[in-house]
Amino acid sequence: MKRWMKYVKPYKWAFILGPLCMIVEVVGEVILPKLLQKIIDGKTGSDIAAGSSTAYIATMAGLMGATAILMLIGGVGGAYFGAKASVGFASDLRMDAYKKIQSFSFANIDKFRTGSLVTRLTNDITQLQTFVNMLLRMCLRSPGMIVGATIMAAITNPKLASVLFISIPLVLCIIFVVIRAGFPRFSKMQGRIDNLNTTVQESLTNVRVVKSFVREDTEKQKFYTANAELKTAGLSAFNVMILMHPLMMLILNGTIITVLWLGGNQVIGGDMSRGELSAFLTYINQILMSLMMITMLFVVSSRAMASAKRVAEVLDEEPDIKDGAGIEEDLTVKEGGIRFENVSFRYYKDSPDRVLENISLDIPAGATVGIIGSTGCGKTTLVSLIPRLYDVDEGAVYIDGVNVKDYGLVNLRDGIGMVLQKNVLFSGSVEDNLRWGDGEATDEELRAAASYAQADGFISEMEGGYKSDLVQGGLNVSGGQKQRLCIARALLKKPKILILDDSTSAVDTATEAKIRQAFKTDLSGSTKLIIAQRISSVMGADMIVVMNDGRITGVGTHEELLSSNEEYSEIYHSQTDGKGDK
């Protein structure tokens, strides 16, 4: 409860005034049957035909009208404050959950899965919002109605009120069964929603791959399976409610029939007036309907508790990569020298297989370093340790002689520009995407960075130029254009360390040569790490690192490695002697 109070406090007056307004409505609902009784029974207490004056009836009707207006004010106020409090609660909670997710490392995100995180930010928090809104409107209204109507029923006819000692325990038993059966089923249903969201997200994000491999039928089957599992889980959860409403109505109608039978006999015997019977029936109906609303609240709470648990898991998750206690807040990357010292790494801490093993490497500031090796040898993992996208298991990574763990994450990553293997663009304009590198960059700086990346030409030819819209993922530009935009974005950052992870694979060799030349001029003082599959991409580097199976097998210039490193020599000849890609 303490956790959620953080989101209640900013709206505490709405949380207080909402239920109080509902109490006004409750008081009105309790008073109305008594006023109607007075009209039916007349001034003398017998019946309306016994000679009640028109003025008396008008007075009672006026009081009923005034009560109805007060109920209207209370009901509208309760709905308004309930909406204000619940929407604010959900909005603040969603913001905190999103901030927490933004602090997650890759490993944290992999633990939850992207689709599950989307569900928790949307569907789960919406369930909590619905519960809070319903709670504020019912937490005092329904119990208040039960208490008030029970007292009035007992005052009206104590003997007849004994019927409630049978109906109320039956309703409470139903509530208990619903809560006990509902919670685990709703938890399972939310998990199925996760799975469905993940399936849809993967299919739509990779729609080009799906269509190019003509795998629409496979994706339809995956969606059908996920959808069917959700349907089964949903039916299982809502089956709890199938019998609830009919059973509640059976109890309600059974109680009313019993009251009519017993009360009718009392009216015939002269022990009860018709007005009293009418009022008593209204009170019985109010009591049982309020119990039904409490039951519905518990059903909603059952699903909300499952959602709250899932949201709390996100809020409680500790990022495995974060600023340490002893960081120097003003420390920034100044030169860009990099040193790997006996570094080993595995993705799963309990796995015996290391992705990197005993890596030691010294990269001078300002050097251009090529990294080459077979697919899966650990090249991307190696450079990911520099900005702490992952942390080493053993050893240490140093920048400018300082352990990367001693930098604040923001300062560390601000000094490093990365063009990832998977080029990512966001929906928005070309200009918006480039400004990820520097939000304060001038138009001239934008054009300069794009020119260095050989992107200015095709951007200028687009209908809107730099204002042209990119669809989600940059699907309306080619692979080579996407790579050049990502390179321009990184160049605009003017980083001390630039990491290019196979980021020119979709660019022709002539354009790639121009980009490499731009690196020498625009980023002459920056350390550049270039992961590539093509020998031509790294031949001119100051240093080339050859990797195989998580180890460094050679370091040197192109000429040195060609004469001394068999693996490098094989890659070179396979690409230049007609045995592979040229």
Describe this entry's structure for a reader.
This protein has 582 residues and is of the alpha/beta class. The chain has helices at 2-8, 12-41, 54-102, 106-112, 114-138, 141-156, 164-205, 207-212, 216-242, 244-268, 274-316, 379-384, 409-414, 430-434, 443-452, 456-461, 479-492, 509-522, 558-564, 566-576; strands at residues 338-345, 356-363, 368-373, 394-399, 402-403, 416-419, 428-429, 469-470, 497-501, 527-531, 543-548, 551-556. The strands form 3 sheets. It has a 6-stranded mixed sheet with strand order 6-9-10-3-11-12. Strand 9 (497-501), helix 18 and strand 10 form a beta-alpha-beta unit. The longest helix is centred in the first third of the chain and has 49 residues, at 54-102.
Can I get a quick summary?
This protein is an alpha/beta fold and 582 residues long. 61% of the residues lie in helices and 10% in strands.
Task: Give the strand tally.
Answer: 12
Residues in helices, as a percent range: 55-70%
Using only C-alpha atoms, the radius of gyration works out to 36 Å
Task: Give the strand line-up of the largest sheet.
Answer: 6-9-10-3-11-12
Topology readout:
Elements: H1 2-8, H2 12-41, H3 54-102, H4 106-112, H5 114-138, H6 141-156, H7 164-205, H8 207-212, H9 216-242, H10 244-268, H11 274-316, E1 338-345, E2 356-363, E3 368-373, H12 379-384, E4 394-399, E5 402-403, H13 409-414, E6 416-419, E7 428-429, H14 430-434, H15 443-452, H16 456-461, E8 469-470, H17 479-492, E9 497-501, H18 509-522, E10 527-531, E11 543-548, E12 551-556, H19 558-564, H20 566-576
Parallel strand pairs: 3-10, 3-11, 6-9, 9-10
Antiparallel strand pairs: 1-2, 1-4, 4-5, 7-8, 11-12
Helix pairs in contact: 2-3, 2-6, 2-11, 3-5, 5-7, 5-11, 6-11, 7-9, 7-10, 7-11, 10-11, 15-17, 19-20
